[in-house]
Specification:
Strand content: over 45%
Number of helices: 1
Strand order of the largest sheet: 1-2-3-4-5-6-7-8-9-10-11
CATH class: Mainly Beta
Largest sheet: 11 strands, mixed, barrel
CATH superfamily: monomeric porin ompg
Distance between the termini: 28 Å
Radius of gyration: 18 Å
Length: about 230
Amino acid sequence: MTMLRKCHSFILLFILFSTYNSFSQETDFRTRWAVEAEGELFNLLDFSVSPELRLWDNSSRFESIVIEADVSAPITKFFRFGGVYRYQYERVRLNRDKNINRMGIYAEFDTRIERLRMKYRVMYQQEYTNYTTRELGNVPESQHRHKVSFRYRRKGWDITPQFSVEMFFTIRPAWISYQQKLRITAGAKYRLTKDINLGLAYKFQQEYYENNPLTSHILQTTIEFEL
């Protein structure tokens, strides 16, 4: 219980700090609900599939449904290579929905220092957004993103604290409304049973628009099944 209180205090302080830094900008509180299944294929490939429901406008309105599939293979003890596919249906306005298809490849490096596990992932992704409007049509977008994450696991603990920082950079098109995005995540996983984990995380997300920066505070709940 001492560890749980420490995690709650850390998340609360981080929320207050992020709220202070985002003062005078456009802000929104969002919630995300996800189910994730992960396992192994043919003793060679690791995979995960995750459907997710997202709410926005202070969690009062439907934002999108996301389905993501990830497949990766360990190349060495400390390096793996993988690919990601994501489909996303997003409600922008009543007459302007979006269907988004994203494909990405990534390389991930990880190491351990006693009970602390550290990872660095670099990803290139190509995204196609199909607007239900004739004037826009299918809009391609290329990005690269970089994520550093930390996880602390100790024998006898059912709770695993986690923390990550990720940056997104847009390569093209040049006229895209945002050029980069910062996402900071603090949370923990709780082992409910041998094969089921419950996750709770707070995400601070800053999108850098040309004229109107958007700050989002996101609370994400995840049920994870290990197959």
